[in-house]
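As a warm-up, study this chain.
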Amino acid sequence: MSDLLARVLTTYGGIERWKKVSRISAHQRFAGVLWPLKQVSGIIDDAWVTVSIQKQWTSIRPFTAANRRSDFTPTRVAIESTNGEVVEELRDPRASFAGHVLKTPWSPLQLAYFTGYAMWTYVTEPYSFTFPGVRTEELEPWHEQGETWRRLKVTYPDSIATHNAEQTLYVDANGLLRRRDYAVDIAGGVPSVQYMSGHVEVSGLVIPTTRKIFGRDAQNHAVHEPLVVSIELDHITVD
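Now compare it with the structure written out below.
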């Protein structure tokens, strides 16, 4: 484990605390231009999300209807009733995005897959950086917002569903994750930059409450218009 990853893990509550956590839940509010572009507006604008910490699983409710929820794993995604009855499902969901570009519409099941892996990626970091097959490497520092941020390249194995295999996290002087660079493979590989803020401590863990996502130019800078996605979390609980 690199000293940078060790620093971040300590800041976020320590690996031993994370090992004891089963799930994290929160009220979420989504906005941004991505949802109308993908023709899925309104489905997840105001909902509750639950993420499993020790395995890759996410559920969002309500999802497409007041009495329905999503059920995400890397190999299967489903829409269920709140009593567990399967309404529809999709096996090998990643394959369904073959040929997609940024403007290709998503089905509700594809939305469940994207939001499922995205929220799992975000909520479980930095603990998930220690999972089997995940590799980390410190890169040269980056200067932004009058600060110097250390950079951690994270390479995910195929067994973990996420935006793309290699992502870069930026760490401030306090050990907080402030930025993520990635490309959205299932939307044509669009280069993206995400900023994290509003970090709060909940049951010994540090969790960002605000995320804003923009496009990224060839010089590695954010393109601040339009706002692609915003995510706000509150009422966070740790089990």
